[in-house]
Specification:
The chain is built from four helices and five strands; from the N terminus they run H-E-E-E-H-E-E-H-H. It is α+β, with helices and mostly antiparallel strands. A five-stranded antiparallel beta sheet has the order 1-2-3-5-4, with helices on both faces. Helix 2 crosses helix 4. Bound molecules: zinc ion.
Amino acid sequence: MTMPSDASASRPCGICLLIERAAARFDDFIAELPRSWLILGDAQFYRGYTVLLAKRHIHEIHLMPRGEAHELLDELLAAGKALSAVVQPLKLNYECLGNQEPHVHWHIFPRSANDPMRLAPVWLRPESERKLALPADDRRALITSLRAELARVIPAGRFN
Ligand SMILES: [Zn+2]
């Protein structure tokens, strides 16, 4: 039996393309940390939804040099702390999937007690409901607060 070929192997990595845009002052930029980029995600139904992208293109975290992986995880913890302080969620959902883009990244979803689907994975909510944009002033305030919290933990980051 012939296995289907992996079409993703022949196209550029979508995360690497996203990082290039972030480096060029991408609109959703929150911070550049030593091992990662943090950007605001497009599903602000979950207010504060962010994505942490490893700087290194690698498809599994266990393939990273150990020290580098630990530094990356420290940045994930810092992002989670900042989100907890700013958004005060019922629970944070950290998702490291990489099935569509073979590049280590985490989706960090703040979950709310008011969400009737709070026990379900976020992906079960229809995309048309998930992909909400915040009002511009709320979005600016959110990013400013996240940067302030992150800067306390990772002063070596770039926040503007
Ligand atoms: Zn990549």
